[in-house]
Description:
The complex is a heterodimer of chains A (about 150) and B (about 375). With about 150 residues, chain A is mainly beta. Chain A has one domain. Chain A has strands at about 5-10, 15, 20-30, 35, 50-55, 60-65, 85-95, 100-105, 115-125, 130-140. The radius of gyration of chain A is 16 Å and the shape is globular. Chain B is α/β, with parallel strands linked by helices. Chain B has a single domain (about 5-110, about 200-384), classed as Peroxisomal Thiolase, Chain A, domain 1, CATH 3.40.47.10. Chain B contains twelve helices and twelve strands. Chain B has helices spanning about 25-40, 65, 80-95, 125-130, 135-150, 155-170, 185-190, 260-270, 285-295, 305-310, 325-330, 335-350, and strands at about 5-15, 50, 75, 100-110, 190-195, 195, 205-215, 230-235, 250, 280, 365-370, 375-384. In chain B, strands 3-2-4-7-1-8-12-11-10 form a nine-stranded mixed beta sheet. A two-stranded antiparallel sheet of chain B has the order 5-6. In chain B, helix 3 (about 80-95) crosses helix 12 and helix 6 (about 155-170) packs across helix 9. At the A-B interface, strand 4, strand 6, strand 7 and strand 8 of A face helix 4, helix 5, strand 5 and strand 9 of B.
Amino acid sequence: MNANEMTPIAEGLFVIADGLPCLLGSHCASCGTIAFPMQATCQKCTSTDVGARPLARRGTLWSWTVQFFPPKSPPYAAARADQFEPYGVGYVELPGEVRVEARLTEADPDLLRIGMPMELALIPAPGDEPGLVTYAFRPVIEPAEDVDERE
Amino acid sequence: MSVNDIRIIGIGIHKFGRHAGVSGLEMAAAAASSALKDAAVTWRDVDFAVGGSDAAGNADTLVSVLGLSGVPFINVRNGCATGGSALITADAMLRTGSANLALVVGFDKHPPGAFNPSPEDWGLGDWYGKTGMMLTTQFFAMKIQRYMGEHGISSATLAKVAAKAFHNGALNPNAWRRKPLSEAEILASAMVNPPLTQYMFCSPGEGAVALVLSRRARGRVDLSRPSVLLRSVALRSRRFGSFEVFSPSIPIESAPSPTTDAAAAAFELAGIGPEDVDVVQLQDTESGAEIMHLAETGLCQHGEQEKLIADGATAIGGRLPVNTDGGCIANGEPIGASGLRQVHEVVLQLRAAAGARQVPGRPKVGFTHVYGAPGVSACAVLSR
C-alpha cells in the first residue's frame, strides 16, 4: 500500500512520515508521564500542561493473546463472521515511555512470546473501507535494522 | 452484639441461566419476594431499597409489583460492582441510622455471547472497537498470560479452577452449568483467547438476587439459624498504574489493583484478616481471574496458587474454599446480580444451609469480591 493511498482509522493516533508510521502520545511537562493516545490531562498528576509526543517505533512484547472468535459488530468493523481470521492483540512496552495496546501482525500463538522485540507497522483496518489503515506491531525479523520498503 | 451490627436477615435468588419469556424485573421481583419471606418481614416494613441492573431495567420499577409504599428506592448502575454498590449504599443508610430495614436487589438479562460495549460509553474512540480491541476477554487473557510467566502458573491450574467451578455448580440447584467437566475436557475446548479456552470463561447470563438487611434483630426469631453480620463493604476504582480493562495504553510503573485496595479496606473495616476467612467468593470471569484475585485480595501470596490449587485447598473440603456455588463460571454473569449472588452464597454457608456444597466445620467468616470494567472492585466481609 502506498502511503498516499492510506487513510488513518482515526485522526491523532499516528502519523506517517517518510513512509514510516509513528504513534502519537502525550507527554506531561509536569511529571513526565507519557500516555497513548494523547490525553489533555495527565492521569497521574492531573496537570493540563500536556503536549503531543511521537512514540518509539520499537519495543518488546509485554503480554499478548489471540482473538479466536469474531467480535460482535458493532463495535467491531467487520460484520462478516464467515470471513473472520483470528488476529493477535498485545501490549508492547516502548522503553521508558508506555505500554501500548495494539493489534499484532502475528496470530500464531507458537510464534508469540513475552519479551520478543516488536516494531510498529500499519495494517488494513477491519471492514470494507479501501485504504483505511490502523496501527499494529510486528515481530522484528533479524537483522533488526533491515526495513524492506517494498512491503 | 452492638446496636451498630448490620445483619443480613433474608436472602432470595432467582435461578441463574437462560429464562426465555421471563424479564429481568420479573426475576428480581421473585428474588425480592423470597428474601422478604426468608426474613419474615413484609414489603411494608422496608424503609429503604436500593438495587440495579446493567441491561435489564430500573430496579425501582419493582414497586409496581411489590407495592407502592412510598419507600425511598435508589437505582444503581455501576458495571460489575452494581451489586456491591447497592450493598454499600444500604450498609451506609443502616449504619447512619437513616434506615432500619433495607432491601437490596440485583438482576440482569444479557443476550448470548461476549459483551459488546460501545467505546463511546467508556470514553474511547470508535477506532478502539472497530479494530477489535473492545473485548473484556482479551484483557483477562493478557493479564493471566503475563501473570503465568511471572508467578509460575500452569495451564493445568487454569483447567483445575474451571473443573472445580463446574463440580461445585453441579451441587448447586440454582446454578446454570450443572454438568461436571474434566480438566482434559476444559483444556480441549475451543481456544478463545490464549491461554484461555471456552470452558475457562463465564458467559453473560440471567438471574436475580435480593437481600434483606436490618439494623437490629427483627423478623423471625429462629434460634436454629445463626444471624449473619455484614461486617464491612468497600468499593474502589482504579489507581494510576494498575492494569485494567479497555486500556489503549498502560503506564510502565505499576500500582495495586482496585481489588487489592478494596479487599484491604474491607478487612480493615471489619477488623478481620484474610487469615481468618473460612469461605470465599471471588470474581472468576475466567479461571485466571480467580487465581490472580486469590493473591490480590491477600488470601494467599502471589505464586502460591499453583500449589494451593494442586493440593485442593480451594475445593469445598479444602482449607480455603473458593466459589462454593460454582462462581461466575458455573452460574454465568448477569452483571447486576453477580455480586449479590456471592453474598447469598456466603450467607447460606454461614447458616450451614448450603446443602450438598456445604463447607464442613461450620464456617464463621466469609468474604466476597467482585471486579469489573473499567477497573472497579467491591469486597465484603461477613461473619456469624
